[in-house]
User: Fold this.
Amino acid sequence: MTSRLSLQQYMEEVNAEVSDSLQHYLPKEWNVPASLDTAMSYSLMAGGKRIRPLFVIAAAESLGGSREAALPVACAVEMVHTYSLIHDDLPALDNDDLRRGKPTNHKVHGEATAILAGDGLLTHAFYSLTQATTKFHVPAEDTLAMVEELSKMAGPQGMVGGQMADMEGEQGITDLKQLKYIHLHKTGDLIVFSVKAGGRIASASLEQLHILETFGRSLGLAFQIQDDILDLVGNEEKLGKPLQSDLKMQKVTYPYFIGLEQSRAEVKRLTQLAKEAVSSGKIPYPERLLELADFLVHRDH
Amino acid sequence: MTSRLSLQQYMEEVNAEVSDSLQHYLPKEWNVPASLDTAMSYSLMAGGKRIRPLFVIAAAESLGGSREAALPVACAVEMVHTYSLIHDDLPALDNDDLRRGKPTNHKVHGEATAILAGDGLLTHAFYSLTQATTKFHVPAEDTLAMVEELSKMAGPQGMVGGQMADMEGEQGITDLKQLKYIHLHKTGDLIVFSVKAGGRIASASLEQLHILETFGRSLGLAFQIQDDILDLVGNEEKLGKPLQSDLKMQKVTYPYFIGLEQSRAEVKRLTQLAKEAVSSGKIPYPERLLELADFLVHRDH
Assistant:
């Protein structure tokens, strides 16, 4: 069992396994134009925190599920997250030059290749998802439910809708209701997907899926408010991007609407809500989920 | 039965049903930013020929399958096709101002929205696909096989790879081998997916799937060579775009490599190959597929 590892060790172990697995889904021998393959790998293997894959795997393991079967799902969600970063950074959208302290995809590979690399990662994510059944015998019904949920949570009603609203917000028409819509969808939906999909890998009951959804929904919002706070008062070097970029972009944030202290209190409240949900006794091994929740509130980048 | 309809009537009937169904998958009441919804609809409802949906439905019906169950799959493939056009037309890629005689998506809705509309359509295509099971009781195994195949055929190894190679070709490094790679993947793969998916809806045997693959593969290449020919000698008004844009873009084409007459002969040979495959007696009702094959060779736009 991995439960003897510290959270730090657990995160490093999972991160390494996810990276190996991602490499496996972009194999050297596949018949893909080299420039496209290179651009996809550039962002996918840039060494992020792999928070979403961690949620998939911790959720699967919280119900005694198999990490091996959860890996294709963890890879899928990381591909979707990565594609969204590549497209968000494009000149027509956020026009960012740096991501995780490295030049953004289009800065290195050009705009056209970056668009296609994003398209490729999004499409390939669904391939990776199917491998839970093809390679690891997850029932087809469960994997298809994940496909349906990912397409909703990452699509027009989910992440893409959140990104669109965020972009419109930069043009100065955001109110608190719209800000919540942006946070719930742009970041929250993919985190909800991650924990629920982990649950499905472990054949979660409907009640357990509901608990995991509450956990993901609360924590996803807390995560995004924490991001708003870090952008305001974080450590520039650790963040790998300039501080107060939201202010400079005239983007409204939680601190903008309810102040810094109130925002911190909201992060705490939502995190508590998430932790209580999985501590109800219906989730047999909630420890890693609880630790991850605390980690996200206390992170400084 | 619909077999008494002329091909023209059949195409119009299917086109109308697909358009209705597409409208159903972009419902008025869904919670999506209006600007994103409008941009997605703009291209999806622009009234193309719906060739790929026709292949899905004709293939399903060639095995006695249900049109109703094939419609979500037909919609999925049209969404993927439409997203690929939106992204291909972007300034960083082909920088086209016109598509089907109308201003391209980014010309009307702006570049950022066009990128997100494409992302939204690609993601939503997988949702549409899952509805074959959720709404029409196609076995989950079959729908999951379609998800796997669509993600391959439309992804880095398929359409996106073809698009990348095509873009590199515009920079003057294409040879005949690469041109064939481009045609097979950029256009061919999605047509192969369409006919095979139609087959799966009708519970095709492995042998029947193989026949449909041969049909789609041959016809997909013929279709693309015909496109090359039409770009050279077609009717500008009917095409809805300027003639000889390939020449102007210094894009190599089949006529460039093997001449116009040889290209026409190749279209004929490939079409014959496709028709023979489905006329082998293993496909109970091949008539519409045969008519569609002839239609594609004789089309003028």
The radius of gyration of chain A is 18 Å. Chain A touches chain B through 53 residues (CB under 8 Å). Chain A has one domain: 7-294. The domain at 7-294 of chain A is CATH 1.10.600.10 (Farnesyl Diphosphate Synthase).
